[in-house]
Amino acid sequence: MENLKPDMKPDMGGDCGYKCGMLPMCAPLATSWVPPQGMNPPMYAPEEALTRGTLFPGLDLPFMNMVNKSNPYAGTPLGELMALTFMVKELQLYLDTHPNDKEAFKAMKDTLALKNEAWKRYVKMYGPLTVEDLEMSDKYDWLQGPWPWEYCERSAK
Amino acid sequence: MFSYIKKLEYPVKIANTNPALAKFIISQYGGPDGELAASLRYLSQRYSMPYPELRGLLTDIGVEELGHFEMVASIVHQLTRDMSMEEIKKAGFETYFVDHTAGIYPQFASGTPWTAATIGVKGDTITDLTEDMGAEQKARTTYDNILRMSDDPDVNNVIRFLREREVVHFQRFGEALGKTLEKLDQKNVYFMNPSFDK
Known about the structure:
The complex is a heterodimer of chains A (157) and B (198).
Chain A: H1 46-52, H2 77-97, H3 102-126, H4 153-156
Chain B: H1 19-25, H2 27-30, H3 35-45, H4 52-80, H5 85-91, H6 94-100, H7 125-149, H8 153-183
């Protein structure tokens, strides 16, 4: 994953840098334009992305510069799974508007492989996350364990 | 179709009971710029979208908003699940409590029940995407205001995550609108409605 965290110094020079996007040279009047994010943008590592709420440093625009230093499940199997799932979600939204970014699609495939491994490890330890996961169960254990809104210590281990 | 994943998108772990915070955070559950409104707005608008990237984006963001709906409920639940009658009275939570006890009900902070009157489905591509950009900004402002009022670090950790998602969604809707404009007549992008005039 190291290659996903390139030099993150904002470059405001000729190519705009990752904090800016390019508007069309000529655009129709009476419309709203948001500068599109450039291709192959720098990305945080999965856990940092989850904690910050975005995979992309260029879009990381906190209120009064208050930022999360960590999240409550960081370093746990569930935290790892959440981070990888979140990275897939962020890449999905990015690819919806940048479907030709080959690097981002490769990152999506690599992340999915890691996520699927983490998912299986989690389900083996703590039980099913979806009804399909019951294939790995030896009894109907869908009802066991905490529900997502009931935080308890076990779910984070 | 939809199927359930038994986990949150981002962890909600709140140590202290605090119905005073729940009183206004409930607005992001069922309020005018809340997560239920966001989800139903996007998941309803997608049917008249003319291009695959718009159908995809509205689906994918609408589904994420349902996950945020669950996260805000988890915050309110954890702030109120163990509250005592004394805490209810001290927080001024009686008006909610008398109708809903410690249940989670989609309403504005002011008590108005969730209403579809707060969302728009105009059936016009530019109009709907422009509404969506405005909706993300309104939700971001609401989260900014929650951060101004809440002094609970466990709550603020989740709120900062949710707030940042609004920024990312605004960017994606803006990019989607740009892609739409590029497909239209550059001399008059309002010549027709690509959602209706095929």
